[in-house]
Amino acid sequence: MTATERRERQRAERHQLIITTARELAESEGWEAVTTRKLADKVEYSQPVLYGHFANMEAIRDAVAVECIGEMAEELRQARLAVPESEAIRAICTAYLDFAAAHPAAYQAMFSLPTKVKWASAETPAPLRAAFGEIVSAFGPFNDRNAELAELIWGSLHGMAVLLNSGRIPEEAQEQRLDLLVGLFANAPE
Amino acid sequence: MTATERRERQRAERHQLIITTARELAESEGWEAVTTRKLADKVEYSQPVLYGHFANMEAIRDAVAVECIGEMAEELRQARLAVPESEAIRAICTAYLDFAAAHPAAYQAMFSLPTKVKWASAETPAPLRAAFGEIVSAFGPFNDRNAELAELIWGSLHGMAVLLNSGRIPEEAQEQRLDLLVGLFANAPE
DNA sequence: CCCTAGATCTAGCAATGCTAGATTCGATAC
DNA sequence: GTATCGAATCTAGCATTGCTAGATCTAGGG
Q1: Residues 115..144 of A with a Cβ closer than 8 Å to B: which?
Q2: With contact defined as beta carbons under 8 Å apart, do A79 and A95 qualify?
């Protein structure tokens, strides 16, 4: 059975290659440039091969999104553990906004473009849970209140990321804005 | 010159008809169903007529977005003026989330789908300024600090709207979440 | 060495955004 | 009233897209 095993492995490698290539293409030329033909060209297979791995183009973008969310979760974790607990909230916020700024196309796929990725249900992918868990952890143990705080600050961060990306907010006042945000959430009434 | 005046007026009416029809189509069937052919059919003109009014499909969606933002600004204003000043923040928040829930396609065009609408520059459309101004007003007079608070709470509201719409947040805890949000921003340190 | 099953490609369909060129319509001048 | 000219509008079609059916090739077992 080693033959079919190898086939399985090669198939998995190609699956990952498609995701990686789609992400690179999106980061360098924008998501509207990620077409089935261009993507098939870059991975050096024909278009139908893509459909052997994914149901459609949207599924490919969703796969990129999930991968990127996992990556961001890891960066949030690193940032949180690198500072004393009292500074965890600020560290998480900074890491979040840095990720959004560093990978705009990835961030789009994660939170702006249409998607079929479920955030709430039973089939929510593990990386999504991990990312949310990191934000909650900045507030302390996992309970209802901290989860609510996490949802709220996440919303604020998303808003800031979008506004920053669209050039609405000047980058210079960013530190001050972060101070205000962190202050609000640190002083949250019990 | 009354002839050309009438032409101008009819042209403006048709311009509005296109926007209105596009919005209706989006609300009833989703934005992916708003194609040039379907839209042209509904307004009972041929496709090229659309391009006599708008540069492309995205410009039509942007026009819908601006109109809807203006509508939301008016609803925020009504909500704010209907309650004592001390409850303005909560009133604005509720009105914002209600609008997002009541007009999901409009909300998508406003804040989720790709757009060329500028929020920050000199050519920012008046309705956008009005909407932002309403949120600022909930905090008091227009100054830097209140503008920052407005940006932050706006981000939080946007996050909540998206999460609500995608089914992530259960609707039942909504009141409690609003209490938390309003409490955070009402207790903002000077 | 052949034969089958799976993997892969070629070729093409339907739908999309957008536009050039033909055609129709309406206002103006005589 | 009619001819003329310009604007308004449509017909027809192009290029590109996502996606797929059917042909072709290839690897692995008998």
Answers
A1: 118-121
A2: yes
